[in-house]
Design brief:
- By secondary structure, the chain is mainly α.
- The protein has a single domain (3-364), classed as Orthogonal Bundle (Ammonium transporter fold).
- Helices cover 68% and strands 0% of the residues.
- It has helices spanning 3-30, 36-63, 85-105, 115-138, 143-147, 155-173, 188-207, 215-243, 248-262, 271-290, 303-321, 333-362, 372-377, 379-384.
- Helix 3 packs parallel to helix 6 (155-173).
- The chain is globular and about 55 Å long.
- The termini are far apart.
């Protein structure tokens, strides 16, 4: 890389890292006040723990030299041999993706998942779920990469992967106690602030995935903003249609859905197509959340409905709208390969996540779920001995 591209990629890496505290505020505002510290810490701890995992073995399992079709090698353990500025910039940038992906999962099991179990889950999930899928999709030796599947910035690796793990976790940890239809967000300004930080950081997520400061970065930046804005407005319109009011939480969630959807397509489609994709995903994700109460699964903060479905729509949209090889340009090959990527990611992430969670749940003294009295008083006190707010107030 030239010095300009290195500067751009370091900036993008910092932007992507900023997304994790943005997610922490977004999720933290959606839960009850007695669980705000716990929910924020689920994301914040990833910045420390996943960074260490990535340097030691996460990077080499994902992108290690000499890897096969399914997994990287251990040749670059502790980033041994990753010495050039180009290689180190790539390792840094990819680290930030690995940090935020498991943080996305936590919206499914917040308010009831043991924090010490979660830290062990992080180590196992990055090792056995995230690293293999990242290798399949983004490493030149990965089997999906070789087949020609295209995921520019993480529709499968990040969003579908996290969405399926969220389903597994929500199913195995069980519903929150004494809650039938979710809870009222305790801090809507946190939600909007978090969504705004995520939106800002997402430009690094997508515009940096071309690994250069060039025209592709400009195009990815533009379509990212367009899809997010369009999806947000669809959510606002549909929310007014159903409830008569403009919901701040709905607007924020719609923007995140649009951002998740454009992620895999941002390097491959034009501005007009990003408008269409924003409209499509706005409608689909809105009704996925709207009708989730009919499913007996307490995905507390709608991780699958927003990120899982968003990633699926984005990958299908890539296969349809891609300027080179898309269905509208006369070829079905990319759509088929991306469908294979969707199915393989869904199956692998769901199955291996279930196995990891079941093993953790069977370990004496560990388990997945907090005790009833701990949930009643709030996980801020039971897991962290801290309160988010000193003044007394309702949950």
């Amino acid at each position: 890389m030239d010095s300009g591209s290195i500067a751009w990629m370091l900036t993008c890496s910092a932007l992507v890292l900023l997304m994790t505290p943005g997610l922490a505020f977004f999720y933290g505002g959606l839960v009850r006040r007695k669980n705000v510290v716990s929910t924020i810490m689920y994301s914040f701890i990833c910045m420390g723990l996943v960074s260490v995992i990535w340097v030691l073995w996460g990077y080499t399992l994902s992108f290690g030299e000499g890897g096969g079709n399914l997994i990287g090698s251990l040749n670059n353990f502790a980033l041994r041999g990753v010495d050039s500025p180009d290689d180190q910039v790539f390792a840094i940038f990819q680290m930030m993706f690995a940090i935020i992906t498991p943080a996305l999962i936590t919206g499914a099991f917040c308010e009831r998942f043991k924090f010490k179990t979660y830290m062990i889950f992080l180590v196992l999930w990055i090792t056995f779920v995230y690293a293999p899928i990242a290798h399949w999709v983004w490493d030149s030796n990965g089997w999906l990469f070789k087949r020609g599947a295209l995921d520019f910035a993480g529709g499968a690796v990040v969003h579908i992967n996290a969405g399926m793990a969220a389903i597994a976790a929500a199913a195995l940890v069980g519903r929150r106690r004494n809650i039938e239809r979710g809870v009222e967000p305790h801090n809507v300004p946190y939600v909007i602030l978090g969504a705004s930080i995520l939106w800002f950081g997402w430009f690094g997520f997508n515009a940096g995935s071309g690994l250069a400061a060039d025209g592709l970065a400009v195009s990815a930046f533009l379509v990212t903003n367009t899809c997010a804005a369009t999806a947000m407005m669809i959510w606002v319109i549909l929310g007014m249609f159903h409830g008569g009011k403009v919901s701040g939480v709905g607007a924020a969630t719609g923007a995140i859905a649009g951002l998740a959807t454009i992620t895999p397509a941002s390097g491959f489609i034009g501005v007009e197509s990003s408008l269409y994709l924003g409209i499509i995903t706005g409608i689909i994700t809105f009704y996925a959340v709207y009708f989730k109460s009919k499913v007996n699964l307490d995905d507390a903060l709608d991780v699958f409905a927003v990120h899982g479905i968003g990633g699926i729509v984005g990958l299908i949209g890539t296969g349809i709208f891609a300027t080179n090889g898309g269905l509208i340009n006369g070829s079905s090959d990319l759509l088929i390969e991306n469908f294979i990527m969707i199915v393989s990611t869904v199956a692998y992430s769901l199955i291996v996540s279930i196995v990891i969670l079941k093993i953790l749940d069977m370990i004496p003294g560990l388990g997945l779920r907090s005790e009833e009295n701990e949930e009643d008083q709030g996980l801020d006190l039971s897991d962290h001995s801290e309160r988010g707010y000193v003044a007394d107030g309702a949950d």
